[in-house]
Design brief:
This protein is an alpha+beta fold and 303 residues long. 33% of the residues lie in helices and 26% in strands. The chain has 10 helices and 13 strands. The strands form 3 sheets. A 6-stranded antiparallel β-sheet has the order 8-9-11-10-12-13, with helices on both faces. Strands 4, 5, 6 and 7 form a 4-stranded antiparallel β-sheet that branches. It has a 3-stranded antiparallel β-sheet with strand order 1-2-3. Helix 1 (3-18) packs across helix 3. The longest helix is centred in the first third of the chain and has 16 residues, at 3-18.
Length: 303
């Protein structure tokens, strides 16, 4: 079955299961790095917000024989039921900046890969990256949802990106606290192992920096004093590898590493292990304790 036919059939089947009191739509959604995905939403009669269920991955599973068409529809419905919102959001709440100021947060994206998006959203450049802003909505009965802040919002609120950034600097670490974990502990958790993993002699110590939600946690690199405090704790400058938009790998430079090899490792991971929308950058970064600065490195730079 062709992809467009697949989308049409899934939408029609969901409409049959939800009934006439629900509106089912499929929209093109621009994700990180310019990736366009097809998102299905199911809107109830008394609700103006819905989880977006992306169909692209379901089509791949259907085409490969992992899922049947009926199984896809079942999974779409189960995903909707797990994440549906019980009530509407008052969109008038966003008309005034004071109402959302304490919920403004930031995330990091690659500037060049998101150049089309950046034309329409306030942002601040950091080396080859860009800080963009969201409003974080968090309610116990709704879960967490974010709204990307556009230039039109700034005009409505009468503020600029600097004021937005000042609020986000305070809010993001508070609402999305950071965590630094040893790589071996992260692997152990992923594998659901109870015992400690052995540390082989000669291995370079590696640490993972993210937020507790593990969603766009690479932004933790901008949290005040995070890099400085950790570098002081291990008494070393840091190499910083962007393993994805969700997390970063920290390496003490005192362990000794080849910049060209680190750069190649990041590029290989981006090309083979990540979805395009998960890639942050092919570059690696360096935190200097003496300068208290975050630098971007090239393969040619020697430390």
């Amino acid at each position: 079955m062709e992809y467009q036919n697949f989308i049409t059939v899934v939408k029609e089947e969901v409409e049959k299961r939800t009934g006439e009191n629900y509106k089912v739509r499929v929209n093109d959604i621009m994700k990180n790095n310019g990736v366009i995905l097809n998102g299905l939403t199911v809107m109830g009669e008394h609700c103006n917000i819905s989880p977006t269920i992306y169909l692209n991955g379901f089509y791949e599973a259907y085409e490969s024989g992992v899922m049947t068409l009926g199984g896809v529809v079942d999974e779409v419905m189960e995903t909707y039921e797990r994440n549906k919102v019980a009530k509407s959001v008052d969109m008038n709440h966003f008309m005034t900046y004071e109402n959302i100021r304490d919920k403004v947060i930031y995330k990091l994206v690659h500037a060049e890969r998101n150049r089309v998006l950046l034309e329409d959203v306030p942002h601040i450049k950091v080396h080859d990256l860009a800080v963009v802003f969201q409003c974080l909505m968090a309610q116990e009965d709704m879960g967490n949802a974010t709204v990307l802040i556009h230039n039109a919002h700034l005009k409505l609120w009468g503020i600029d990106e600097k004021k937005l950034y000042q609020a986000a600097i305070v809010n993001t670490p508070r609402l999305l606290p950071y965590e630094i974990s040893a790589m071996k502990d992260v692997i152990r958790q992923l594998l659901e192992l109870d015992e400690e993993l052995p540390v082989e002699e000669g291995n370079i110590p590696m640490y993972v920096l993210s937020n507790r939600a593990r969603i766009f946690g690479a932004a933790c690199i901008l949290y005040p004093d995070v890099l400085r405090n950790f570098a002081d704790e291990i008494e070393s400058d840091l190499y910083i590898l962007p393993s994805s938009v969700h997390e970063l790998i920290l390496l003490p430079t005192s362990a000794g590493s080849d910049i060209a090899e680190l750069t190649k490792m990041v590029q290989d991971i981006n090309e083979t292990q990540l979805g395009q929308e998960e890639v942050l950058s092919d570059s690696i970064y360096y935190y200097s304790r003496d300068e208290g600065k975050l630098l971007m490195l090239s393969e040619e730079k020697q430390m």
